[in-house]
Amino acid sequence: MPQQHSTRPPAGVPSMMYLIKQVELAAKGHLDQLVAPFGVTGVQYTALTVLARNPGMTSARLARNSFVRIQSMAQTIAGLEERGWIVREADPSSRRQRRISLTESGRALIHSLQEPLEALEHDMFADFEGEEVEAFAEYLQRLRLRLGGSHPH
Amino acid sequence: MPQQHSTRPPAGVPSMMYLIKQVELAAKGHLDQLVAPFGVTGVQYTALTVLARNPGMTSARLARNSFVRIQSMAQTIAGLEERGWIVREADPSSRRQRRISLTESGRALIHSLQEPLEALEHDMFADFEGEEVEAFAEYLQRLRLRLGGSHPH
DNA sequence: CCGATATCAGTTTAACTGAGATAA
DNA sequence: CTTATCTCAGTTAAACTGATATCG
Lengths: 153, 153
Hints:
two-stranded antiparallel ribbon, 2 strands, mainly alpha, homodimer, DNA-binding, globular
């Protein structure tokens, strides 16, 4: 039954998604600002850190891990390769796949940015209690798993 | 099947921002999928709901509220106007500003999408306790305020 | 003159789709 | 034959910058 056009505000329907988007947008702004002087975007840098933690990854696997299409990730990877931060080598056991590894230059980039980025995150959560940061991270993890379940192909 | 657990140490520098981005990306996918049949994007729709809750807003004010540039919001607003979901009327007390209000069509759109969107959010947080959802929302609010403090001009 | 609003025009990031070659 | 990976090519959404006119 269609309610009358009450002046009642439609409550914050998409409030959570709106909030998440705004936080992401604001955080991206800070991240980009910090890493830009190094000639890297926030997306490129985060991809690089994932690759640093997972040596030998393929582009396709990284794409699935990040919930983007293979082609989207390929573009990001191409940028990293072009700048010389990564190399892709043919895997002898699977000539189709190209395994990614960081160059010295890539490792140096991560090293240079590690401290400023930790400071940025520390600042982001300056008014959080220690356990609140962990709780927030845990909520994000849960959402990531739940929402990521239904990714298109 | 390819449910892998990552090699090991989850610790990483930009882990929080990476998580936030992934959650936002996944949530956006679900939102867009839901609202697309109505000819609206997720960004357009969320802007519309903000306008519904704040009648008489200007584009510039909405932009500041959303942490985007005036020009970026103007583009979103233009899309909403083009589709007939909003109208912009000259304010007699300030001939520069154009106050935005929803049309019947715009209100109908919000009404049509309210229930499915509530269902989507409910589903997102299905494995959250009630107080956890509130805590998560509160964390996001805090981050929004803290990060939004340093928005460019 | 200055600041805020709005607009016009162009750019960039980073996602997307579709098509096709090749290897497992 | 099927599926996954990779690549090429083009598209879109949604942010951005810069410049300009006008109102208060």
